[in-house]
Amino acid sequence: MQIEPDNPMNMKLRIAVFLCRAIPLSVRRIIAISLARTATHLSFKHKLIAVHNLTRSFPEKSLSEILQILKASYASFLLIFAEFSEILYMNKDNLDQWVSVRGLDHYEKACRDGKGVLLFTGHFGNWEIGNAA
What we know:
The protein is an all-alpha fold. The chain has helices at residues 8-21, 25-42, 44-57, 63-83, 104-112, 127-132.
């Protein structure tokens, strides 16, 4: 990802990324999880909206299950935020530290055999990292 140095917003982004990366990723992840635990208690209004939306989306779930989903959603969002600054430094040499690919041999064989390939993927984490892969 290229950042245009002349844009003042990009300079702020560079500073934010620099400050964020000054904290080791493992510590940022711990901070993110800790913040997620407290985030559900910060704004009753937003928690109520989220619980309402989740209840409408998953009517078969109990309130306890809905609250677990809410906490997991907050944790997922904050983990993405904690990992985001790493994306600027991803490249072909270090991408395997973030993403694992299974079944690549099937893809390569199909390409060698001149067959079409349909790829399916799921994401279980940071969307931006998956896009980088």
